[in-house]
């Protein structure tokens, strides 16, 4: 129109597959337009409320419900939504655009602002087609990428191009061309509340109730739904809760690897057999994985170095053969206390109370090398052997030599040491930490260190690595991924659970284990986890060596002037 607003949408139909739900969606009064990505799972109850207030609907989609919720209650309507979403509403009465992203950041939303041009999309590559988009590399964010293997919000790889942070919305005034960014929810607020004064039995029962409701809500669909099953606590819990309330067999999907160290397909098969699901597994070859590498740059829009993106794409392809929606169990580590780095950091903090013990451990750890660690691990019984032992050891070594709690957490979250980056990058210094979620670490100082770490990961690693990986992988094959462990009601509840119940008897995910043991025997899932990863190191020394060296020698890399000459 005359305001210069252009809206477009490429729809994956899940709720109401008819043409009535096509987008952009225009309200009956023609004052409001929406483009919407994701799902609001409780849209039916909101729809009933809106109907009682006099609103009429022409579709059975959640998109229309979101639009009329905005018309009725304004942007505050977001507090009614349970789900994952990124949407833009054009309010022609106010002559404003509202861009909003879900609380956890499951769905992406990018925007570009330069020379009075304002663009937004769920993918950066959409901007490439616009003549006003400048693909100028943002070198200031490269230290972030090389240290963490992802670029944290609000930044992207390009200048003037940003990620909208989770639980935020942009209000853009079309007349003044000015915008403001607002936060509507924060998990840290719940961590800072008083902890529950309830017994373990009460808490476990309430968690199970929340989990059941979260899982059931995410089964609402007009197309077939399945579940990613790895055999670990998280996906086993989701599958168990769903199969309990399903008469039909659930479709479950697993990817297996030729390399035993990385293969968890047998564990998943055992769980599927116990629960009676309709299970599909596929063993992928090294060649299949390597062929996908060239696809990554297209699917992920910007540099992204989580190697588990490869098997995630493959399991998404496998699921897409039978279903259009797949539930995964991402977020379990951040919500229920599952990462191995948490256990290591907790141990280090305990040892710090005794300077003698702490300094002795530092001395011993610094004496060991990778070869000795591999040998020691090989001597352990099978049930105690650790996957990725060298990576874990080097990480622990780095953490124990940190000088502060914050530095310890940053090192635990890093793929590459900052000191090393200062030597190899021309601009290796971090100048923009204050605009990322990492700045919140010290605001949470009064929390128990376990809660502090989980609260930080929820807004950093989980958003820009884990959720980015799953969303891009699944959407690359037109499969919708859903995250029942990231229901905001569950996250809010767990933030107020005392940390001693999250980590008990020297085990993480204690409360999740307590829920799961009602459905399947404890020993079935009580095994060391390898994580959803690939043997990247051996590939870089073998099949990928030539490709990697060619990339490092490329003219483009030299032209970008990123690395030190030496």
UniProtKB/TrEMBL annotation:
It catalyses: L-aspartate + L-glutamine + ATP + H2O = L-asparagine + L-glutamate + AMP + diphosphate + H(+). It comes from the Bacteria. Pfam families: Asn_synthase, GATase_7. Keywords: ATP-binding, Glutamine amidotransferase, Ligase, Nucleotide-binding. GO terms for biological process: asparagine biosynthetic process. Residues 1-175 form the Glutamine amidotransferase type-2 domain. It is an enzyme of class 6 (ligase). Pathway: Amino-acid biosynthesis; L-asparagine biosynthesis; L-asparagine from L-aspartate (L-Gln route): step 1/1. ATP binds at residue 255. One of its GO terms (cellular component) is cytosol. Its EC number is 6.3.5.4. InterPro entries: Asn_synth_AEB (IPR006426), Asn_synthase (IPR001962), ASN_synthetase/amidase (IPR051786), AsnB_N (IPR033738), GATase_2_dom (IPR017932), Ntn_hydrolases_N (IPR029055), Rossmann-like_a/b/a_fold (IPR014729). One of its GO terms (molecular function) is ATP binding. The record marks 330 as: Important for beta-aspartyl-AMP intermediate formation. L-glutamine binds at residue 62. Belongs to the asparagine synthetase family. This is asparagine synthase (glutamine-hydrolyzing). It comes from uncultured Sulfurovum sp. The lineage of its organism: Bacteria, Pseudomonadati, Campylobacterota, Epsilonproteobacteria, Campylobacterales.
């Amino acid at each position: 129109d005359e305001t210069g607003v252009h809206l477009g949408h490429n729809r994956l139909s899940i709720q109401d597959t008819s043409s009535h739900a096509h987008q952009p969606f225009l309200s009956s009064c023609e004052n409001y337009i929406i483009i919407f990505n994701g799902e609001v799972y409780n849209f039916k109850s909101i729809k009933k409320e809106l109907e009682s207030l006099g609103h009429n609907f022409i579709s059975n989609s959640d998109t229309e419900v979101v639009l009329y919720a905005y018309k009725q209650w304004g942007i505050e309507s977001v507090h009614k939504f349970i789900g994952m979403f990124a949407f833009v509403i054009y309010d022609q009465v106010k002559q404003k655009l509202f861009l909003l992203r879900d609380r956890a950041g499951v769905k992406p939303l990018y925007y570009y602002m330069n020379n009075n041009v304002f663009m937004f999309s769920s993918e950066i590559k959409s901007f490439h087609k616009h003549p006003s988009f400048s693909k100028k590399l943002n070198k200031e964010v490269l230290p972030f990428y090389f240290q963490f293997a992802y670029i944290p919000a609000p930044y992207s790889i390009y200048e003037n191009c940003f990620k909208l942070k989770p639980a935020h919305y942009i209000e853009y005034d079309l007349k003044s061309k000015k915008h403001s960014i607002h936060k509507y929810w924060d998990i840290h607020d719940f961590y800072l509340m008083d902890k529950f004064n309830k017994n373990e039995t009460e808490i476990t029962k309430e968690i199970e109730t929340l989990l059941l409701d979260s899982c059931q809500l995410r089964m609402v669909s007009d197309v077939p739904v399945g579940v990613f099953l790895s055999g670990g606590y998280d996906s086993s819990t989701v599958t168990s809760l769903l199969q309990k309330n399903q008469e039909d067999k659930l479709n479950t999907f697993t990817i297996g690897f030729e390399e035993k160290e990385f293969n968890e397909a047998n564990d998943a098969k055992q769980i599927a057999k116990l629960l009676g699901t309709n299970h599909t597994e596929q063993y992928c070859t090294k060649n299949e994985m390597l062929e996908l590498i060239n696809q990554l740059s297209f699917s992920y829009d910007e540099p992204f170095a989580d190697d588990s993106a490869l098997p995630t794409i493959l399991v998404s392809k496998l699921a897409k053969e039978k279903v259009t929606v797949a539930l995964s169990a991402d977020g379990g580590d951040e919500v229920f206390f599952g990462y191995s780095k948490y256990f290591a950091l907790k141990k280090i903090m305990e040892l710090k109370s005794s300077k003698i013990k702490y300094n002795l451990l530092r001395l011993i750890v610094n004496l060991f090398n990778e070869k000795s660690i591999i040998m020691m691990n090989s001597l352990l019984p099978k049930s105690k052997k650790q996957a990725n032992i060298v990576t874990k050891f080097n990480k622990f070594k780095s953490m124990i030599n940190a000088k502060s709690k914050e530095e310890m957490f940053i090192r635990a979250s890093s793929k590459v040491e900052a000191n090393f980056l200062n030597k190899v990058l021309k601009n290796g210094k971090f100048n923009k930490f204050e605009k990322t979620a990492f700045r919140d670490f010290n605001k949470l100082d009064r929390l128990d260190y376990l809660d502090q770490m989980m609260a930080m990961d929820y807004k950093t690693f989980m958003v820009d690595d884990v959720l980015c990986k799953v969303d891009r992988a699944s959407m690359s094959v037109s499969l919708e991924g859903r995250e029942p462990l990231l229901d905001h009601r569950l996250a809010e509840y767990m933030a107020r659970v005392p940390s001693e119940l999250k980590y008990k008897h020297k085990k993480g995910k204690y409360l999740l284990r307590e829920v799961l043991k009602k459905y399947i025997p404890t020993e079935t899932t009580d095994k060391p986890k390898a994580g959803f990863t690939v043997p990247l190191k051996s590939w870089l020394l073998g099949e990928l060596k030539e490709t990697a060296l060619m990339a490092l020698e490329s003219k483009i890399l030299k032209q970008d002037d990123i690395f030190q000459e030496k």
